[in-house]
Design brief:
The chain has about 475 residues and is α/β, with parallel strands linked by helices. It has 14 helices and eleven strands.
Length: about 475
């Protein structure tokens, strides 16, 4: 029933974004587990059967007969406390350093939890006692699920353990009720010196294992694995095996083999190592990425799997200078973004920003007239989307100024390196094409790199050609 419920969840899974894939479904399950919103388990059926569940799942339920296994633990010879315990589970993390639980001080039940007074040993002892107390409540829930019969068991050895266990303190507490006639100890064995499971499994250890034989299988009497090995070894053939079938069974088998052959061919093709295919360049690029891609500074891999860039002081200075230029050009100060109020920024020397702004004033841009869109909006930090070479290029033009001859001057302010003269693609040319696509380009456009960090002058060119310092 639980499996059917899980398959229903798989069939109805639909992510909010993207396609329903195995990766997205596994991510959904991980998120549900973190949020403690696990899939709802099916309630036990009413028919007479064995129900296997955790104690938490059994809360609120009752059964005629209940078995509580593995009430076992080892006992420390030094302290007499349970170790390697199964039930109760005495493992406790340090709430002072653990990331898996809330610190005790911020929990609603903080007044009932141990207090740390500067001594770690006594504090961890109190934490462990608290864990055992919670386990005792859980043990009470397990015992009270039984209507008529209750069986509590423990064992000296479990699995492949090298250290023996035995009855835990919970089991011993129940045993103390024997004298009152409330419980009966049905069986109690002495501790074996060695783990008996090793000897019990010794005769099962064989390699290679013998082939599984078919049960009432006339075709593969020795098991289909043996038949497959015989076909691979050449001692028999698939055709000879099919000859022993009736016509109807043979037709059905051949149809099944034909449907499986396609799956096998797909698996075989996937096993062939092929040269890795080059990723496709995204259909939407930033203006900077487009120019760097054209100049060979970026590859398709860089765009397909971009890595975050480490913040630098130069980048912070450039962002701040562009913001100040926009404020000065618009004659107003924009409202700060929310993150600017919440997160303290890195310290930037004001002298450097002041030098760059004075250079902007020396180049005359403080007194220049900003061009405007037909709507009246100034062309400062002007966003655009340009279709070029089959892709959408998005970006922002730093500033567009009016010129004395009635034309426009597109300026890209730079606080860092000067663009190389030999670059095949030019960011200013992209800006010029963006204005042309908006029907905002007159007959003459001047393209300018405003090198604010260069004290010798700005790099200026006409139509993006013959730039000169």
């Amino acid at each position: 029933q639980n499996i059917s419920n899980f398959l229903d969840q798989v069939a109805s899974f639909a992510p909010l974004e993207g396609e329903a894939t195995l990766r997205s479904f596994v991510a959904y399950l991980d998120a549900a587990e973190v949020a403690e919103e696990t899939l709802e388990a099916t309630q036990p059926a009413d028919q007479d059967s064995v129900k296997l569940m955790t104690v938490h799942s059994a809360k609120g339920l009752e059964f005629e007969c209940v078995f509580v296994p593995s009430v076992a633990s080892g006992i420390s010879e030094r302290t007499g406390e349970p170790i390697y315990s199964i039930f109760p589970n005495t493992r406790a993390s340090n709430p002072l350093t653990s990331y898996a639980e809330l610190p005790y001080e911020v929990r609603e039940d903080a007044e009932h939890l141990p207090k740390f007074d500067g001594k770690l040993g006594p504090f961890m002892k109190a934490v462990k006692d608290r864990v055992i107390e919670d386990e005792r409540r859980l043990f009470y829930v397990a015992l009270t699920r039984a209507k008529q019969r209750l069986a509590v068991t423990a064992s000296w050895w479990y699995g492949r353990d090298q250290i023996s266990k035995g009855p835990s303190p919970f089991w011993s507490e129940l045993e103390s009720l024997v004298e009152e006639g409330l419980v009966d100890v049905v069986r109690r064995d002495e501790l074996p010196e060695d783990n008996p499971l090793f000897e019990a499994m010794e005769d099962r250890r064989a390699w290679p294992p013998s082939a599984r034989t078919g049960v009432d299988d006339t075709l593969f009497g020795e098991g289909w694995g043996s038949a497959a090995d015989a076909v691979v070894a050449g001692t028999t053939t698939v055709a000879s095996l099919l000859e022993s079938l009736s016509p109807d069974e043979r037709a059905a088998t051949e149809s099944l083999m034909a449907s499986a052959s396609h799956d096998l061919s797909v698996i075989a093709a996937a096993a062939v190592r092929e040269a890795p295919s080059e990723p496709e360049v995204p259909s939407i690029l930033s203006a900077t990425s487009y120019v760097r891609l054209q100049n060979g500074e970026l590859t398709a891999w860089d765009l397909a799997r971009p890595l975050p860039d480490r913040p630098t002081a130069a980048r912070r200075i450039g962002t701040e200078v562009h913001r100040l230029i926009e404020e000065r050009s618009r004659g107003m100060s924009p409202f700060p973004d929310e993150h600017e109020l919440d997160e303290p920024g890195a310290y930037t020397p004001p002298s450097r920003i002041g030098q760059l702004m004075r250079r902007w004033e020396e180049l005359g841009y403080a007194d220049r007239t900003i061009a405007r869109l037909p709507s009246g909006e100034p062309m400062i930090e002007l966003p655009f989307a340009l279709k070029k070479d089959g892709r959408i290029i998005r970006g922002r033009i730093d500033a567009v100024y009016e010129t004395d001859d009635g034309g426009l001057e597109i300026v890209d302010f730079k606080t860092g390196r000067t663009p190389a003269e030999g670059d095949d693609a030019d960011q200013l040319a992209v800006y010029r094409d963006a204005l042309a696509s908006l029907s905002l380009a007159p007959g003459r456009i001047r393209l300018t790199y405003g090198m604010l960090g260069d004290t010798d002058g700005a790099s200026i060119g006409s139509h993006g050609e013959n730039r000169q310092a």
